[in-house]
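To close the section, here is one more complete example, presented without commentary so you can practise reading it yourself. The ligand is heme C.
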Amino acid sequence: MNNLIRRWLVLGGLAVTGGVLPAAAQPVQHLTTVQAGGMPGMPVMGGISRLTNGVQLHWSGPAGYYQVFQKSNGLTAPWIALGKATNVACTATINQLYSNAFFRVAGPAPNYAGSKLCLACHLAVCQYETNTAHASAFSSPAFAALGGQTNASCLPCHTVGYGTATGFVSAKATPLLAGVQCENCHGPAANHAGSPDNPIIRPRVEVAATLCGGCHRASHTAFNNPPTYEEWSASGHGAVVPDALKAMTASPASIDNCGACHSGSARIALLTGTDPALKLTNDFNVAIGCAVCHNPHATNSVSPVQLRNPLFSTNDFQLLSADTASLGAFTNKYNANTNINLCAQCHNARGAAWTDTARAPHHSGQYNILIGSVGTPALDYPFNPGTHAGLPAANGGFYLTNQCVECHMSAEPAASQGAHNHSLAVNYNVCANCHVGQTGQQAQAGLATFLKPLVTETLQSLNRWAATRAPAALITNGVVAWEYTTPGGVTWQTNATGGVTGWSLNGTVNFTGPNAAGQALIPNNIKQARYDLYLFLNDGSMGAHNPFYALALLEDALSLASQ
Ligand code: HEC
Ligand code: HEC
Ligand code: HEC
Ligand code: HEC
Ligand code: HEC
Ligand code: HEC
Ligand code: HEC
Ligand code: HEC
Ligand code: HEC
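Output:
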């Protein structure tokens, strides 16, 4: 209790009426605020949410005991302690309140130590950490030249704990707290270093992007640094896909399976040696944050920006559900494949096969399309990378050395060239490095006008088969005989005679496919045709990832559907 300090955080007021419930089996609280300096040294408010019968408070701060206090309406009313000073969850549910109540929490004192003190017990992490740019965030000549070392507005993100009682003061007074160190990310840890066996004051390990976002954000654009956090939050990586969330809520096995690609906390648990299904039953709604791709502690030979995997590979790779069914299986697979492109770790076809009957290939096949290793053309010729896969080619010496990142994360030709755009939006300026005489958009539109009719023709053939040649048992109202049991999602418009005239991926699917018994009646050529068709559609690039291979997929689909 001697950790408690008399600094209060008033959480806010609400009109309900007094009492406390323990915080039990609730979702794990992650850092909800984005704060200069990273992990706050003092408690900061996360929010109040209203429950049917009370409120829930959230706050963030260093690991340790907290106590919640409440004050009834009126300035002169006393603060009343709610429960004991033993709250370690940083959240409390209060179901009886005063009208217009105010809350505050008392928490552990921020006691910064500096990373030298951590060396004794965390030698490996400390050695690697020293090689990162973080370690020299204060000493860097560029920072010094701009006067940052003595400018109070710069110090919160370039030093440890600036602005708190035991944090950085000046290069002279607190030399061991210069630069970005362990405690920017883990919170003040001197108390922990003093009693490492006390689990209550063990430093926080935060995997959410808000940790990094406190410093890597828009406020820094004046120095040509991109607003990484904002770009990232607006991207598809900034939230967990709702359907994946639903699946993980329904079954722990899905936390391993879907979570390996859809949940930041599940992915990081797998990468750092925890079995997510066992540990994360209430902690999978964490987006694909910074630490999923960047190793927070280390640079490596392939990446000065601390990426966990390289950006270029041409090995075939798919992550199967068997690979994530246990930690051991994942570790074996991953260690054997760390040389696989960072993006391909998730953007792969998941073992899609033409024999699948329940669902169409997942939307994630981009890497295997880029290198041409999935679909019926690859059954005969397993390696079909197009020029966009970045293999050296006769393109005036230019090729896509960083594969996906080259098109999806480039910031050229802006002043911040060399920096990367985390929004994932395709940068069409890149195309001009090779495509002459037309813009990338024009090239893509041209390719689409060529490929789209092939999709229509394939649908025409599949529907013709369903109407005229499908086994009688498959011809039922509301069932499309060539589809997967859960239809893949393509819908089409027809003319007066029932011929397909166009298609869309965003229409309402008001039909089903044959059930499992019915699937057994669908001939192989139809199964292969729908597989190729959906591989093309679900890749989402309309052929751009591997133009000639996309053409091969659709030509195969059409000819198989017409057999
Ligand atoms: C005297 C030894 C010692 C010192 C000094 C020490 N630690 Fe630790 N630290 C430990 C032990 C023991 C654990 C628990 C390891 C475990 O359970 O696997 C730990 C765990 C941690 C964790 C992980 C908590 C978790 O939940 O996995 C972090 C983060 C951490 N320490 C940071 C620090 C920082 C930062 C410093 C320096 C300010 C520091 N430690 C200094 C011994 C120490
Ligand atoms: C306390 C503020 C702060 C926090 C928190 C923080 N960073 Fe940084 N980061 C910096 C600063 C400052 C630099 C620039 C250091 C330099 O080059 O001198 C930097 C540099 C980097 C770089 C190297 C950039 C380059 O161009 O070489 C990477 C990568 C990075 N941070 C990733 C992360 C990730 C991932 C996290 C969260 C796990 C994170 N940072 C958390 C302040 C922070
Ligand atoms: C909100 C947090 C924040 C504040 C405040 C901040 N920086 Fe930074 N600074 C960063 C981060 C994060 C990076 C790394 C960005 C990257 O590499 O993408 C960085 C990088 C830099 C770099 C380039 C890396 C290097 O060290 O060579 C310089 C120079 C720099 N900052 C100077 C300043 C100066 C001067 C100020 C004050 C006027 C300042 N910063 C205030 C977060 C901050
Ligand atoms: C830029 C932010 C950042 C910095 C700086 C940082 N860490 Fe971490 N640390 C993390 C994140 C995020 C995780 C969880 C993800 C992971 O382990 O890869 C973590 C995990 C840990 C763990 C638990 C599991 C493991 O990977 O061993 C320990 C212990 C730890 N850090 C200690 C330290 C120490 C000691 C330092 C300083 C030498 C340090 N960290 C610096 C962000 C950081
Ligand atoms: C091998 C990695 C991986 C696994 C495993 C995985 N997904 Fe995905 N999933 C992805 C990727 C990558 C995308 C995004 C592709 C895109 O944006 O085109 C995606 C897209 C989706 C979408 C479409 C989102 C949208 O934008 O419409 C849904 C729904 C989905 N996944 C659900 C699931 C469910 C449920 C599971 C578990 C049964 C799962 N996924 C397992 C990688 C995976
Ligand atoms: C999907 C993977 C991924 C995620 C998630 C991700 N990054 Fe990156 N980041 C990259 C790649 C790839 C690069 C470019 C590396 C290269 O070209 O060497 C990069 C570059 C950077 C750099 C170097 C400066 C620059 O822009 O080139 C910083 C700093 C950085 N990221 C910080 C962050 C932060 C902070 C977050 C979370 C808000 C984040 N990243 C999330 C993949 C990722
Ligand atoms: C941990 C798994 C994982 C990694 C690693 C990963 N992604 Fe994703 N990515 C996903 C998932 C899941 C989605 C689907 C999000 C959705 O549909 O909302 C997605 C969506 C996307 C999208 C769709 C864009 C959008 O905003 O809708 C693009 C483009 C993308 N990722 C590119 C990349 C690139 C480039 C890399 C490598 C630097 C990468 N991804 C690494 C899992 C991952
Ligand atoms: C030659 C440039 C290029 C390369 C290399 C590239 N992409 Fe793409 N990608 C595109 C284009 C163009 C689109 C279509 C974008 C659109 O319609 O907005 C696209 C679309 C996507 C989509 C679907 C986006 C959506 O909104 O549904 C995802 C996901 C994706 N790419 C991921 C990747 C991954 C992962 C890699 C590496 C394996 C990769 N891309 C390599 C150009 C590229
Ligand atoms: C490394 C050089 C290079 C870059 C960069 C590049 N392409 Fe290509 N692209 C090619 C080559 C070479 C072909 C011929 C087909 C092949 O080998 O895959 C091609 C073919 C295409 C095609 C097929 C039809 C046609 O017009 O030839 C499209 C569409 C296309 N690229 C779009 C893009 C887009 C969009 C971008 C930028 C996001 C881009 N390309 C970036 C080299 C490049």
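Once you have examined the tokens, check your reading against these statements. Residues 36, 137, 140, 142-143, 146, 148, 151, 153-154, 156-158, 215-217, 219-220, 223, 225 surround heme C (ligand 3) (CB under 6 Å). The chain has 22 helices and nine strands.
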